[in-house]
Design brief:
The structure is a homodimer. Chain A has about 270 residues and is an alpha+beta fold. Chain A folds into two domains: about 140 residues, PSTPO5379-like, CATH 3.40.1640.10; about 110 residues, 2-Layer Sandwich (PSTPO5379-like fold). In chain A, about 20% of the residues lie in helices and about 25% in strands. In chain A, a hairpin with a 2-residue loop joins strand 3 and strand 4. Chain A starts with 12 loop residues before the first helix and ends in a 7-residue tail after the last strand. The interface between A and B is medium-sized, with 18 and 18 residues.
């Protein structure tokens, strides 16, 4: 499978989506279309939509909603006018009864008129802001995926949805921890401020060297692990809550939007 | 009818709610329980709840959701544990088919197990922050209600709900306009940054001296009118969209919560 380095540099979000739509390109989206918001994707039948919308409202840190697309519509008119949600994400995941059932590269066969799509903020947005503030982001330096952990922090349940909060971790030099809190606090629409700083055991993480998802990263002497709520939390909720059908993006293979990161800073 | 000055000073939010519950006190809540969040209230039958939740998601400035209470539950467990939403607001409004049908002081007769309650942020929270920042708030100086205007700014429709955005206006000395933007930007959960600064006509306001709701306030030489999205917008949506039943608080008679204003600042 391709990695992001095989994608020509300088493509606009719309050009990238057309490449994914054409089907010849399946690649993680980290680093692509820098400066533009990338989104987690959750697609559910209408019968589950109220419960999931309420789950997001009650858990704004892991599930900050950027847009909810009307039932049956394939176009996120706010975030990416003209896009097709069935084809423009590089890879999807299909969960049936809480179990990963397939990883298709489009949803042409699966699409139905009662499906409602939710676009959820992604930490790529605040990572750009961290780097601009001179704060190192280790997994980007390592060219790996961010380490993610299933915590002992419960989400606020809503209807059928419940489950543990998933967090991502970035080690930050002690002298820059305050600045990292400030920078990410300005982006509540993309997870915002951290949920925990320091001791992993305090939020139920047994072994910081063995993330449940993504790749481990080095924590150097003098660095403090900082934990942010993660947009994979809905997938953990799918596994815990076992809805008949839930479609998401494949981890790291995000939906690339036309909106700029800077539009999502509150100050 | 009583005004706020008839309420003993120094009551906690819980004590205030008990006074309202007992029924002997009907008063606007401006200035009561300073430092604690007050909320706009919208109560709808479950059949309308998804559309309204989506309306709030799509219109976060006028409709910033603080809590959604499960169907039939009378207790906002996040904002005011132990409270009773049927009795603890000083006065309610009942809209039927988009028309104001009654202004009861409790909902004991009207309550039904399919009702879902939405608590929405209120600008009282950021007004305290403005005053602390040395920015005058004219309608508080005048002891009147904030002036509100129906604008030409459309809300993003969701299901049956649509209608114009309602804004509140506060005149601010030109030298403090930037600071007013900064201070209120820190509170996205209670309407956040202004939606417009300056010329009222640019957002469809014909006569700044004649607000559609609330009281007019003086704009002194050198002051600029600043407009913020207003929590009365759902009531305008009720009138435009004509749902069979929608219950709200009566303007100025808010639900007083146990959460502190400072908890809702993002930075």
């Amino acid at each position: 499978m391709a990695d992001s380095s095989s994608v020509p540099a300088g493509l606009t979000p719309a050009e990238l989506r057309l490449r994914f739509r054409a089907g010849g390109l399946v690649a993680p989206t980290s680093g692509l279309a820098p400066g533009f918001v990338q989104a987690n994707l959750v697609i559910l039948p209408q019968a589950l939509a109220f419960d999931f919308l309420l789950f997001c409202q009650r858990n704004p840190k892991p599930c900050p909603l950027l847009e909810v697309v009307d039932a049956g519509s394939i176009e996120p008119r706010l975030m990416a006018p003209g896009a097709d949600l069935r084809t423009d994400t590089p890879k999807y995941r299909v969960y049936r009864d809480g179990t990963l059932a397939a990883e298709p590269i489009d949803l042409k066969e699966l699409w139905a008129d009662d499906l409602i799509s939710f676009l959820i903020g992604c930490s790529f947005t605040f990572e750009s802001a961290l780097i601009e503030a001179g704060i190192p982001v280790r997994h980007i330096e390592q060219c790996s995926n961010v380490p993610m952990y299933i915590t002992s922090i419960p989400t606020a349940p809503a209807g059928v949805f419940h489950g543990p909060m998933v967090v991502s971790m970035r080690p930050v030099p002690a002298a820059q921890v305050v600045r990292a809190v400030q920078v990410t606090s300005r982006f509540p629409a993309v997870h915002g401020a951290p949920v925990h700083i320091g001791d992993p055991a305090a939020i139920g993480i047994r072994d910081i060297a063995r993330p449940e998802l993504g790749d481990p990263v080095e924590i150097r002497p003098g660095e403090v692990p900082i934990f942010w709520a993660c947009g994979v939390t809905p997938q953990a909720a799918a596994m815990a809550s076992r809805p008949p059908l839930m479609i998401t993006h494949a981890p790291g293979h995000m939906f690339v939007t036309d909106r700029r990161d800077a539009e999502y800073s509150v100050l």
